[in-house]
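Posting for a labmate who doesn't have an account.
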Amino acid sequence: MDETCPVCRTAQVVCGKWTLLLVRDLAEGRARFCELERSLSGISPRTLSLRLRALEEERIVERHTFPEVPPRVEYALTAKGRALLPIIDDMRQYGERWLGGECRELAVADAVAPLAAALG
């Protein structure tokens, strides 16, 4: 893999199984571990935990821990994570047009609009 190639580096970050689906689900806002686990049917708790940790290390997702008993933890996209939303929206459009796929509707376009406006 060519570490200097931006396409290769991006693929290395986002092409892990479940990664883009986690970003898609977090596009709607903060979510708790159990909510993500329910929305990603088939993901094991261990895999979800590892994937979230990897996304935190890449600064795509941030973890918020609340000082409560029992502790409450929520995950949210960072600006770097929100920058992936246009890619996900393009993938959805491609799937609908070329693969005949139907995906559960998300407000990804609504989440992308402010980002697109900010980027100019």
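Reply:
Got it, the structure tokens are right above this. The chain has a mean pLDDT of 86.
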